[in-house]
Each structure stands twice: as structure tokens, then as C-alpha cells.
Amino acid sequence: MKKYASRIYVCLIFAILYIPILTLILFSFNNTESTANFTGFSFEWYIKLFSDESAFLALRNTLILAVSSAVISTVIGTAAAEGIYRMKSKWLKGAINSVTNIPMMNPDIVTGVSFMLFFAAVVALLGIEDYDSIGFWAMLIAHTTFCLPYVILSVLPRINELGESLTEAALDLGCTPAQAFFKVKLPNIMPGVLSGMVMAFTLSLDDFVISYFVSPSNFQTLPLLIYSMTKKTVKPDMYALSTIIIVSVFTLLIISNLKSARKSAPDRRRKAGKVK
Hints:
The protein has helices at 2-27, 44-49, 53-86, 90-105, 108-126, 132-162, 165-172, 177-206, 209-214, 222-230, 236-275. With 276 residues, the protein is mainly alpha-helical. Helix 7 packs antiparallel against helix 8 (177-206). The chain starts with a helix and ends with a helix. The model has no long low-confidence stretch (mean pLDDT 83).
């Protein structure tokens, strides 16, 4: 009974998580605007999507922001994780880890309002008349900041697991500290770095609350566009766009997991050989 109960429980969890997404994907192929009845299969909304300039402009803005913030937060987060690992003081390391986790535990609305007030103060201090001139950079800083802890959380365990033996061996063989990091350590922690980058990309892609408070009038992301539509009605071509994004993110996750599995396969074989 316990075995069947656990299976039913897992099925219910997956149903709650994925039935709404599958419903959205299904109705993106509906040949009418109805969200209650599926009347026939059609690519009509995908065709209309590719002729909607506002949707493509919002998608372009979203991708530019997500890719930029993911790359910057990955570079800074990897360096920060290495710095935290090398700290000698356990008290200082614990304090920095706690401070790093604050943005993840903070409600998004608090973070969004904080950024709004901060950038308003910066604009006033610098005497900038038009906020739109720094609006994109403000959004980039905000997105990078809230993505950064997730990158550190993804990379730091990988660095802890790797240890110092490979780096010390590289230094003994004549590498400089920079060469030891980029040629030896970084390739070994790359699965964690890639996981952190994918997580940062998806978080930035999905963000609405922080973007709502920080965004300028001339830079609209996809979540903001969809929210503006809810005041009237969400067009079915947004279902099509959401489906494309879901498939793209799912593909990225599969690629990331496959690369992580290939990287960890030799380690598993070495451990199995030692056990034998």
C-alpha cells in the first residue's frame, strides 16, 4: 500500500505542476480564441505571433536582458564562490553566505521597491532629467543582483566537492594561479557554472515584480507586456509565444543536464574502480 500511495502522491504532484502548462500548450494550437473548448488544431496563433511587432520587441528586450544578466551574474558569481571558498575565517565565511542568501529569501516586492527607491535617489543625485536614459542599465543591475545568489549557490558546492588537490598539482607542475584556475579548476566546475547560468537566465526571463518597479517607459519585457494585456484580454498568440519559451527553456535544461552527466560519468567510473 505504501508503494502505491507514494506513486499516487508523485503523480498528483506532477499533475498539479504540469497540467496548467500542458493546457496552455494545447490551446496555443486551438483554431479559435476560446479557452474553454478545443475546436480544432491550427497554427493560426503562431502565424499571427510572427507578425506582431510589439510581442517581438518585448521578446527581444527580454532575451537581451536575460542573456546579459545571466552572463554577468555567472562571471561575478563564479568569482565570488571561489573567493568564499578561499576564506580562512569560518565566521566571516558563514556571515557572507548568510548575506548572500538574503536576496533569495527576500520577497520580490520588497526587492523591487528597494531598487526603485535606490535608482530614484541615484537619478536625483546625478541630476539626470530622464530616467529612461538609464532605465535599461537599472534593470540590468537589478536582474544581475537578484540572479547572483543563485549562481553562487550552484557553483560553491561544486568547488567544495572538487577540493584543492587538482589546483595544487597544477601549481606544482608550473602553472600560475590564474592558469591553474582557468585550465584545471574551471573545466571541472563547469557543470555547476552552466547550471547557475541557466538558472539565472530563466529567473531573469520570468521576472515580473522587480521589472515592474524598475523598468523605464521605453523598455518593456515580455512579462510586462502580458500583464498589460490582462487589463483587457490576453491574446491567444501569447499562448504560442509562451509555448515557444517553455520548449526553449526545457531544451536548455536537457542540454545542461546531459553535459553535467557526461562530466560526472568519468568520476563515477573512477570511484567504481576504487571500490572494486
